Amino acid sequence: MNEFASTSFLVPLDGSSAAEHALPWARALAAAYGSRLVLMHVVDDREAGRDAAVKARDVFVGYAAEVAAREQIPLGEGSIETGFGPAAPAVLAASEQAGLVVLASHGRGGFQAAFLGSVADKIVRGARVPTLVVPGTGPVRGPGEGPIVVPLDGSPEGERALAVARDVAEKLGREIVLLRAYSVPPPAGAEFAYYPADWATQLEEAAAAYLAEVAKSTEKPFVVHGPAAQAVVDLAESTDASLVVMASGGKGLARRIALGSTTDRVLHSLHRPLLILPPAHE
Q1: Within the chain, what is the greatest distance between any pair of CA atoms?
Q2: What is the DSSP track for 146-160?
Q3: Are 37 and 91 within one domain?
Q4: CB of 236 within 8 A of CB of 269?
Q5: What are phi and psi of 243, to 5 degrees?
Q6: Which of 3, 66, 136, 167 shows its CA 20 to 30 Å from the CA of 160?
Q7: Domain range for 247
């Protein structure tokens, strides 16, 4: 399954070393999928003026060429792109022609259009193509050797994320780890003031049966009691995961307001790369 149906992957950069954290993953996936990388910088010309913006663009072209040489990224026609105006809308417009956006969650300095939290957040929520968010703080984590974690909730969106994760795992030679988190919901009224004594056991068995049904023999299933988002973060840490793959929730405007509570919480607490898939149809 090739969810990244394009010849190019887009990497927004702001000139900072933090933003460059995205490059090892971008390079690895581009090689695996036979896609070229487009390094992009956005110059906000609303205050600086057009002449200053053009100068900033020229500086970025030189910087991008240096980064590409250092990271062994082949550059071809159209591999360096600049946009003007607010950062998030410019990146989102460019992403319409890409199969994947790879960006660091934090960047600062270098060039004035810094991809700090709020900008990255807008890109993730607004993109209609898959987005890989790589932590921009701490040590640079490339694809590594760790497994790919896929949380499942029984929904078609979750299973689509699993199909994409399997494709990435096959291309990168990684293992798949499946997670099904469950919790006992609070009573919803006086008539439901208690649950059967074995209710938690039933939920656990149902979660395990679901994973047994969807898992391949080489995939490791984990059933965890507790909040789903925290379970994802904890499992990613305990397995030294190289990547987590999840689907966003909602469509259209709803998705831009909320990715889905679990995906949103994971996005803001995970310290490992997170691949987020938009809804299949909008």
Answers
A1: 72
A2: PPEEEE--SSHHHHH
A3: yes
A4: no
A5: -160, 145
A6: 136
A7: 148-277
